Amino acid sequence: METLFKLINLFPMPIWLAMMFAPNHALTERASRSSTIFTIAALNYVTALVQAVRSGADEERLPNFTTLAGISKGLGTPEGALAGWAHMLTLDLFTGAWIYRQCQRLHAPVWIRIPALLFTLLAGPFGLLIFLLWRFVAGVAERPLSQREAICE
């Protein structure tokens, strides 16, 4: 279980680092759009989920995920925690890749791209919020490209 946890954690790190510190490299661009990378991340989650369901099969029934108590019970095992963590890593990576591509498209300054990606990696929706607030305040999503460049530089 610990080995799977380490692999699931290490897998996306090169992509995160590339999006933050090598944004203009061709491999970064390809990785941010790679269905293979997102498929591997999703398979990591499915693997962890299957282990969690198998460990829960020893009990009389699976947790009720329609209640807070049921979710707490389901995530309260090492297998459940790993499945929850893999779920977050997968969706955070997908969100981070979207933020990266939007930053490239909108010519976002580095002082937005890196914090937005870092906080998406560390705290998911908080990083997304940083990026969306910048986009709203700067009004860059609706402006023509020539005006965006003047704002972001």
Q: How far is the N terminus from the C terminus?
A: 47 Å
Taking all residues together, what is the mean pLDDT?
89
Q: Describe the global form.
A: elongated
What level of helicity do the residues show? over 70%
Largest sheet: none
Strand content: under 5%
User: Which residues sit in consecutive blocks of at least 5 with pLDDT less than 50?
Assistant: none
Class of secondary structure makeup:
mainly alpha
Order of helices and strands: HHHHHHHHH
> What's the number of extended β-strand segments?
0
Q: Note the total helix count.
A: 9
Gyration radius from CA atoms, angstroms: 18 Å
Supply database-style keywords.
mainly alpha, 9 helices, 0% strand
How is the secondary structure organized here?
Elements: H1 2-10, H2 13-21, H3 26-32, H4 35-56, H5 68-75, H6 78-106, H7 110-123, H8 125-138, H9 145-152
Helix pairs in contact: 2-7, 4-6, 6-7, 6-8, 7-8
